[in-house]
Write a structure and sequence with these properties.
Elements lengths: L4 H4 L3 H12 L3 E7 L2 E6 H17 L7 E5 L4 H12 L3 E4 L6 H11 L3 E4 L2 H13 L5 E4 L12 E4 L8 H12 L7 E8 L5 E7 H18 L6 E4 L6 H14 L2 E4 L6 H8 L3 E4 L1 H16 L3 H19 L7 H9 L1 H7 L7 E4 L6 H9 L4 E6 L6 E4 L19 E4 L4 E5 L11 H7 L10 E9 L5 E6 L4 E2 L5 E2 L1 H9 L4 E7 L6 E7 L1 H10 L6 H4 L3 H15 L8 E6 L19 H14 L4
Parallel strand pairs: 1-11, 3-4, 3-5, 5-6, 6-7, 10-11, 12-13, 13-14, 23-24
Antiparallel strand pairs: 1-2, 8-9, 14-15, 16-17, 17-18, 18-19, 20-21, 22-23
Helix pairs in contact: 2-3, 2-9, 3-4, 3-7, 5-6, 8-9, 11-15, 12-15
Length: 605
C-alpha cells in the first residue's frame, strides 16, 4: 500500500474493500471467547459487509436513512458500521451507557429508521426509546432477543442478514459506492452541547479519510510500517476510537483486537502484544500508579532505578539532559525499561493519548520508562484529530504537537484556535444555529471551525493549549459533559437553590451545592433543629437529605453525568461576591478560585 492511496479514495468503504483485496485471507478482526482469540479474515469481513449492506436495503431502507448502532466493541461493530455506509445509509453510533431518554433524543433528532443492538442487556433502555420514537421501524440484534410483542417494531436477527450470495451482493455494492463521494455524510456522532442536549456532528467520508491520511503519514514517517496490531479499548461510539481505532488501522491494513474490558485490559495487552494503542489519559494514570506500586515492591535497587529514570526524564522534558546521564541511561535500557515494555507486550511502538488533556507529568513518566507516548488534540467536529506530537519534530509533553497533514490553522484575536480543511464537519445535524456559531458563514472567520480552545504555537510549530474558552467538561476518559444540563436538573430539586458541577480531567463529576433556604427552614422546623444554614450542613441527616436530591437526578442521567460526591458552598453565589454575572450566570472561574481545594478534596479517599 502507498501513502498516496488515501487521497484517491472516494469513501471509507472503498478504502476498506481495497485493503481487503490486498490482505485477502489474512486475519483482520480478533475477539476472545471460549478462552481463546478467534479471527475473521479481511475477505470474510468484506463478504459480510456486502451481505449486511444488501439486506439492509432489502428491509426498505433508502439512501441517506440513519441507522443507530449500540454495541460494545466487537467485530460485528466494525462490520455493521461499514455495512451501513456501504448501503448508502448514515451510521449513528451511540454510547452503551446511554439512558432511555438519551436514546430517545438521538433517535428522534436523527430520525433513525433502524437500530442495531448487540444484546439483551443493551436493548433494555434502547427498545422502549425505539418504541416511543417517531421514525424507528427496524431492530437488528447481533444476539437473538426475547420478545413477547413487537408493537410497531420489526425484529431481525443478525444471522438472517448474512444470508445470500456474497458475489451478487458485492456487485450491487460496487455500483452504489460509485455514487458515494468524500463529501457525503458517513456518520452522525452525538456530542454534548453547552445547552445539554447532545448535538449530532455530521462527519463526511472525506473528514475521516483526511484524518487517516494525516495519522498514517506520522506513523509511516516516524515509526515505519510493518505488521501493525491495534488493541481496541475505547468506545467505538467516541469519534477518537471510531477514526483512530477503526479506520486508521483499516487504512494501514492492520489487525484489530477487541479488548474484553478494563478489568482484563492488562492481560489482553500481554496476550495481543499490540504495536499501537489509542488511549485516554485516565488509563495512563491508572497504569502509571500500578507500575509504580509494582516497582516499589521489588526492593531498593528497583526503586533507585525508577527514581533515576524519572530524574533523567524530567531533565529531558526540560531540555536540560547532560552527557553525564548517558551511562545511567544505558543501564536503564538493560534493566528497568525492558521489564516495563514487556508489560505492554514488548513490541509497542507508540501509545497515543487523546480525547482529553494529558497531565505532562504522566507523559514524562512513560517516556522515562522507555515507552513512546504521543499526545493528540482535536474534537469530534474535526474528524476528530487536529494535531499530534511526533518524535520527528520533538516530543514535548506540555504541547499537543504540530497540526496534522491537511489541517489549516490560525488564531483569532483572542487566541482561540481556528481550524479549516477537509477534516472539518459539515455542521450539526438539524441545528443551523449551533453550526453557524461553530463555523461562521460570513465575516473574517467564515469557514473556520472555532474550537473553543485558546493557545499558540511554540518555536517548533507545536500547539500549546493555554485555556478553554468553552465551559464543557471533558473527563479523564474523554467524555464530554455539559455542566449546565446537570446543574439545571439539580436546581430543579426543591432542596437545592444553586449548584456548580466540576470534573474536567477527572474520573467523575462532583458538585458544589447551595441548599434552598426556604426548604432548609422547613426541614429544620420539622426536625426541631435551630435554623442556621451553616450549622445544618454539619448534620448527617441534613446532608443525607441533599444526597437524596442529588440521587434523584442521578437516576435520570448517564453514567458520565452522575454527581458522585458533593460539598456545600459557604454562601449563595451572587453578583456581590462576583460568583454570578449580572445576567445571573455562574462565574465558574471565580467559584473555582474560592472552592477549588474543597472540590479537589472530594477525589481523595
Amino acid at each position: 500500500m502507498q501513502l498516496s492511496d488515501f487521497a484517491g479514495f472516494p469513501n471509507l468503504v472503498a478504502m476498506f474493500l481495497d485493503r481487503a483485496r490486498e490482505r485477502g485471507d489474512t486475519p483482520f478482526l480478533w475477539a476472545r471467547h471460549g478462552g481463546a482469540w478467534h479471527s475473521t479474515s479481511w475477505t470474510k469481513t468484506a463478504e459480510q459487509v456486502c451481505l449486511i449492506a444488501r439486506n439492509l436495503r432489502a428491509l426498505g431502507l433508502e439512501s441517506g436513512d440513519r441507522v443507530v448502532l449500540v454495541s460494545e466493541n466487537r467485530p460485528e461493530w466494525c462490520i455493521a458500521d461499514l455495512a451501513i455506509m456501504a448501503a448508502g445509509l448514515v451510521s449513528v453510533p451511540t454510547y452503551t451507557t446511554n439512558t432511555e431518554r438519551d436514546h430517545l433524543h438521538i433517535l428522534n433528532n436523527s430520525g433513525a429508521r433502524a437500530v442495531i443492538v448487540s444484546n439483551a442487556k443493551l436493548a433494555l433502555p434502547l427498545l422502549p426509546a425505539a418504541l416511543r420514537s417517531d421514525s424507528a421501524r427496524h431492530v437488528i440484534a447481533f444476539e437473538p432477543l426475547r420478545r413477547a410483542q413487537a408493537g410497531s417494531l420489526e425484529f431481525h436477527d443478525w444471522a438472517d442478514l448474512l444470508a445470500g450470495d456474497a458475489a451478487t451482493a458485492r456487485t450491487e455494492i460496487d455500483v452504489r459506492l460509485a455514487t458515494i463521494g468524500r463529501g457525503d455524510t458517513a456518520c452522525i456522532i452525538y456530542t454534548s452541547g453547552t445547552g445539554g442536549a447532545p448535538r449530532g456532528v455530521r462527519q463526511h467520508h472525506g473528514a475521516i479519510l483526511c484524518n487517516v491520511d494525516g495519522a498514517a503519514h506520522i506513523l509511516a514517517e516516524d515509526f515505519g510500517w510493518d505488521r501493525e496490531i491495534f488493541l481496541s479499548f475505547l468506545p467505538l461510539s467516541h469519534a477518537y476510537e471510531h477514526t483512530g481505532g477503526q479506520f486508521l488501522p483499516i487504512g494501514m491494513g492492520a489487525e484489530i483486537y477487541y479488548s474484553e474490558g478494563l478489568e482484563k485490559l492488562a492481560s489482553n495487552i500481554e496476550d495481543v502484544r499490540p504495536t499501537m494503542m489509542v488511549v485516554v489519559p485516565r488509563l495512563f494514570e491508572v497504569l502509571r500508579a500500578r507500575i509504580m506500586k509494582q516497582v516499589e515492591k521489588q526492593g531498593r535497587f528497583a526503586n533507585y532505578l525508577m527514581r533515576r529514570a524519572l530524574t533523567i526524564g524530567e531533565k529531558e522534558a526540560a531540555g536540560k539532559r547532560r552527557l553525564i546521564d548517558r551511562p545511567m541511561d544505558l543501564i536503564l535500557e538493560r534493566t528497568l525499561r525492558p521489564k516495563i515494555r514487556q508489560r505492554f507486550g514488548g513490541r509497542i511502538k507508540a501509545m497515543v493519548s487523546g480525547g482529553a488533556p494529558l497531565n505532562p507529568e504522566v507523559g514524562v513518566f512513560f517516556d522515562a520508562m522507555g515507552l513512546t507516548m504521543l499526545q493528540g488534540y482535536g474534537q469530534t467536529e474535526a474528524g476528530p484529530v487536529i494535531s499530534c506530537n511526533r518524535p520527528k519534530v520533538g516530543l514535548k509533553m506540555d504541547t499537543v504537537g504540530p497540526p496534522m497533514r491537511g489541517v489549516e490553522l490560525r488564531f483569532a484575536e483572542d487566541g482561540e484556535i481556528l481550524v479549516r480543511g477537509e477534516l472539518v464537519m459539515h455542521g450539526y445535524w438539524r441545528n443551523d444555529a449551533e453550526t453557524a456559531r461553530a463555523i461562521p458563514p460570513t465575516g473574517p472567520d467564515a469557514g473556520w471551525l472555532h474550537t473553543g480552545d485558546i493557545g499558540h504555537l511554540d518555536a517548533k510549530g507545536r500547539i500549546v493549549i493555554t485555556d478553554r474558552k468553552k465551559d464543557m467538561i471533558v473527563n479523564d476518559k474523554g467524555d464530554n459533559v455539559a455542566p449546565q444540563k446537570i446543574e439545571g436538573m439539580l436546581t430543579l430539586q426543591p432542596e437545592i437553590a444553586q449548584a456548580m458541577v466540576s470534573g474536567d480531567k477527572r474520573p467523575y463529576l462532583v458538585g458544589l451545592i447551595v441548599p434552598d433556604a426556604e426548604w432548609a427552614l422547613a426541614w429544620a422546623r420539622a426536625q426541631d433543629e435551630k435554623f442556621d444554614i451553616r450549622a445544618l450542613q454539619d448534620l448527617p441527616a441534613f446532608r443525607s437529605a441533599i444526597r437524596a436530591a442529588i440521587d434523584r437526578v442521578n437516576k435520570d442521567v448517564s453514567v458520565t453525568e452522575k454527581v458522585r460526591q458533593f460539598a456545600f458552598a459557604d454562601e449563595a453565589f451572587g453578583i456581590e461576591n462576583e460568583e454570578m454575572t449580572p445576567s445571573l450566570k455562574i462565574r465558574r472561574h471565580k467559584i473555582r478560585e474560592r472552592y477549588g481545594a474543597r472540590l479537589d478534596a472530594l477525589y481523595k479517599g
